Amino acid sequence: MAKPLSTMPFSLHELIKIRNSEGSGRVMKSLLLDIDYRYSQFYGEEEFGHYNMFNHHFFNGKAAEKRLEDFLHEEGGEKVVMVTDPPFGGLVRPLAHSFSKICSQWRSLQSPETQGAELPMVWIFPYFFEPRILECFASFSMLDYQVDYDNHPLYKHGGRGRKQSPVRLFTNLRPSNVVLPPEEGYRFCSLCQRYVSSGNQHCPQCDACTSKDGREWKHCFLCNKCVKPTWLHCSGCGHCALEDHPCGRRGSGCFSCGSTDHKRRACPVSSGAVRHRPRTRAARAGDGRRRSGAVLHTVQKQERALRRLTQKSKKMMKKKTKSS
User: To pair with 54 at 20 to 30 A between CA atoms, which of 101, 149, 202, 222?
Assistant: First the structure.
């Protein structure tokens, strides 16, 4: 029996509740951790925790931390798996730090015989973050499964969205144990011992199915690796790149004119340099005089208002004296 710990994937949490209510399959417990406090209107404290995954903070304090600890405690043959779908704009390292804390907490609850085990985890993230994720979790591997979002304008199938979603599954589970649906275009590679997309062909030189984006990649013998089908080897740059790439330019120079003497911010050719040009000393002094003049004008205005008020009060006092 599995107990999914869900950080963000609300649809999975809801699907588990629906399956449990229908009685289809084994009953699973699920705990949803999310920063959106509105989920507390639909789920109780045993099913939802108000949580910030970027700094591992529980908004409800020690009580919420204790509920997570109770959930991570495996007993009676239960197993815990963590499924996370963080925002794609978030930094990988803070997320990995929070996930590592949850993994360490789970490991501390295990028996001495299984102290070296890892918490099974599935991290849903774009494939171009693979190097950064592997820096934090060396035991992870990226699966070929393309995750689609019905409510996302880019990451979905169909005529209006992108043809290929860049979102993948990163997991520490054994890839051969994760069966991908053949009806969606996935097949089992006996050489790699994992399921891959139909367009991901095995490369004999790399001895792996090397495609990352669902297309069939080609092997470059000069680079000694597989590259995207639209890339060509550039002798000037010494590696493969797009055919119309800016050959010879390095990332340390200016992106506007290509010079290595300055950055784009200080480029004399770029129109943006005018906006960022530093102000001269005379201009700064003029600003200071204008500011001091404005302050002086305000003080004089206040003094005139005070004199008018004083004169008005004197006239009223004279009227009262005459009337008496």
Answer: 149
> What are the tokens at 86?
């963080």
Predicted confidence (pLDDT) per residue in 166-180, tens digit: 899 999 999 999 999
What letters, b where the CB count within 10 A reaches 16 and e where it falls short, cover 156-189?
eeeeebeebbbbbbbbbbebeebebeeeeebeeb
Model pLDDT for residues 263-284, shown as the tens digit of each residue: 777 787 764 444 444 555 555 5
Backbone angles phi, psi at 133, to 5 degrees: -70, -40
Is the model's pTM score more than 0.70? yes
| H runs (alpha helix) in the chain | 10-22, 62-72, 92-108, 130-136, 272-275, 281-323
Residue 162 and residue 68: Cα distance in Å, rounded?
Answer: 38
Residue 65 near residue 108, CB atoms below 8 Å = no
